[in-house]
Each structure stands twice: as C-alpha cells, then as structure tokens.
Amino acid sequence: MIIPAAGVIVLVAGLVAVGIIDARTMRLPNRWTRSLAFVSGLVLLALLLRGDVDMAVAGLVGAATFTGVLAAAHVMSPGNLGFGDVKLAPTLGTLVGLTQPSVATSIWAVLWALLFSCLLFVIQAGVARVRGSTSRRFPFGPSLIVPPSCMASIWVSLAVL
C-alpha cells in the first residue's frame, strides 16, 4: 500500500499547486498537466508490477471516464471548458479510480466527483458575483481538483491506519 499512497500524496500536492496557478492565471500549464499525468502513469505501473491489477484497472477506468466526460463537454462547448481542464482529467480520474474497490464503483465515483466539482464551481461563481465581479469567466480547474484530492487524501489516511 505504500507505493500508491506515496504517489497519491505527490499527485495531490501537485494538484494543489496547479489549482493555485489556475486560480491566479486561468491557465493550466502543459508542463504541470504532463508531469502529473506521468506520475499517475507511474503509480498505475507500480500497481501492475506489484500485481494489484484490480486497483490499476479501476484507476485506468477512472481516468478514461473523467477524461471522456470532460472531452465531450469541451467538444460541445470549447469556449466554456478549456483544454487544460481536459488534459488534467486523466490525473484526476486516476485519483478517483484508485480510491474505489471495483471498476463499477470507479465510474460512479468519477460521476459524483464531477457533480461536486460543478457544484463548487457554481458556488465559486456566485461568491465572485456577490463580491462584485463583472467577469463572465472563472477558472474551473480549482473546482475540478478539490473533490478528487479530498477523496484521495481520505483514502491515503485510511490506507495507512
């Protein structure tokens, strides 16, 4: 359990940094999204090499589901969802998938994480409006990052007990 837990901790720390960058600049830098995707791949590879195929498959399914949903949203409305959010999706989906015991629960967990991300975004936009912001654009990355990071942090906490 130590290999995936250490990798998850690194991913969550990187996601916090990316969330701060996106909140300040409304951009998700490619070097960050690529690096996080690489670390996600290393975590999945470590699981496969350790023989933990079920957990690795759940992580892959989570990544595919999260990426598929965001890619579809980007294609339908490219001006509203940036491609940086789509590039971040495999990492977020991997985190959600790793917290689940099976492929089926991995898919449901991704959908719930996306729902909570959308709710957080609506709250973020509402607070900004109440504070007097006239902008019609808000970064979605921070709202996307919070639910998977919380799920993964709780999973690591329970895994090391």
Q: How many individual domains?
A: 1
Outline the low-pLDDT stretches.
Answer: none
Residue-averaged pLDDT: 92
Per the principal axes of the C-alpha atoms, what is the gross shape?
elongated
Beta-strand fraction estimate: under 5%
As an assembly, this protein is single chain
Could you give the order of the helices and strands? Answer: HHHHHH
The total of beta strands comes to 0
The proportion of residues forming helix, as a percent range, comes to over 70%
Q: What is the CA-atom radius of gyration, in angstroms?
A: 15 Å
Gap between N and C termini = 11 Å
What does this molecule look like?
The chain has 161 residues and is mostly helical. The chain has one domain (2-159). Helix content is 82%, strand content 0%. It contains six helices and no strands. It has helices spanning 2-25, 30-50, 53-76, 83-98, 103-130, 141-159.
Architecture blueprint of SSEs:
Blueprint: H1 2-25, H2 30-50, H3 53-76, H4 83-98, H5 103-130, H6 141-159
Structure at a glance:
By secondary structure, the protein is mostly helical.
Main attributes?
6 helices; 82% helix; elongated
